[in-house]
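Before the break, one more example. Copy the sequence into your notebook; we will annotate it together after we see the structure.
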Amino acid sequence: MTALPPPRPGRNEPCRCGSGKKYKHCCLAKDDKAAAARRAKAAKAAAEAPPPAADAEAATAAAKPAPPPKHQTHQPWKGGSTRGFIPRPRTPRKVGGS
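Here is what the structure looks like once it is written out:
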């Protein structure tokens, strides 16, 4: 069983190293650099891993059932393309003028 690391403190909380400084002025940059190195290592490992077989992808795609048909509401007052909104007229509200 692996132990989880302690949660990262907030930026303005005291640093967990015991220096008495705020975390953002003490260990934030060091922790960010270590996290970036871990992400780069994981990305490199993922890039070097062999890609999954194309046959396996085709088999899983063929095994997926088609989604059920969309429910029809039969509401004639709702227009199809307006998404339930009444289109606004193109003429300005005030015509003529003073």
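The two ends are 81 Å apart (CA to CA). The chain has a mean pLDDT of 77. Try to locate both features in your own notes.
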